Amino acid sequence: MTLDEVRSKYSSGPVKLVDGNGGLPMLQVRTPLAEADIYLHGSHITHFRPQGHDPVLFMSKSSNFAAGKPIRGGVPVCGPWFGAKKDDSSAPGHGIFRLQSWSVQSISTLPHGDVEIALQLLQSDLSRKYWPYNFTIEHRIRIGKELSMSLTMKNTDSRTFTFDEALHTYFVVGDIKQVSVSGLKGVQYIDKAPDMQRLTQQEDPIRFTAETDRHYVKTTATTTIDDPSPAMRRRITIAKFGSKSTVVWNPWIAKSKAMPDFGDDEWPGMLCVETANAADDQITLTPGQSHLMQAFISVEKL
């Protein structure tokens, strides 16, 4: 659908196309079950709140909202590389999926009240500049008591390609020093802060006392964020399918000050637990092949 078609069809009801921050088009979802905001720029979910709960996703107050720039917070869709592009230091970090406007394929309200939105991205001049393949990627988002995200990459090229992908989810926490993450005991990880060591997770749960940037590999485990802080008192569960990487990240003090689109004092209130396939877990697709990666996020009170 074109933007005009979406705007005409979805000007009222549970889903509306509105102008978001920076004038970027945004799908606003409001139902008895939950509310969410989804920018077409990057197919980026910036807000999710199931009824009866506080907002689940963290957004930086310093985030950019502009064409060609990434949004900081929520759920960036990273790919077809994760982090820096190994063979091109000039390429945008975390790829080009999050820098482009996605098209609306469908919007539907399901019988039990969930809303499902399907967005699509195809190859473009920007993608070909850095990654010369034809592809179709669909992001299917379901908003209800649970937030589910399904990312399907299809190789529409005549050549085999390999790619990274991530749903780089930022969560609101009450105080990072009181938060813990469970589910990764015994899993090997690449410790990116500071020196890329390969280690094995010994403690369960993980607790946070300094900058943390760990890329867990070869794991399909469900993870939980326990947040007993007085401001939250909740547990967030992240289940996944088709993903073998989990990234756990908090920038702490120095890294926060170094990022221009992240507030210096925002690090105590956020934590990333990312559903991904990257590093050891890259995906290779032959022509015509597809790959599905899903994340399922639910919240309960402690």
Could you give the order of strands across the largest sheet? 6-7-8-9-23-19-18-13-16
At CATH level 3, the topology is Beta-galactosidase, Chain A, domain 5
Shape: globular
Major beta sheet summary: 9 strands, antiparallel
**Nearest-integer average pLDDT:** 96
Bin the strand percentage.
35-45%
Helix- and strand-based class? mainly beta
Question: What ranges have pLDDT less than 50 throughout 5 or more consecutive residues?
Answer: none
SSE string, helices as H and strands as E: HEEEEEEEHEEEEEEEEEEEEEHEEE
CATH class: Mainly Beta
Count the domains.
1
**Distance between termini?**
42 Å
Q: Residue share in helices?
A: under 10%
Per CATH, which architecture? Distorted Sandwich
Number of beta strands: 23
- Alpha-carbon Rg, integer: 18 Å
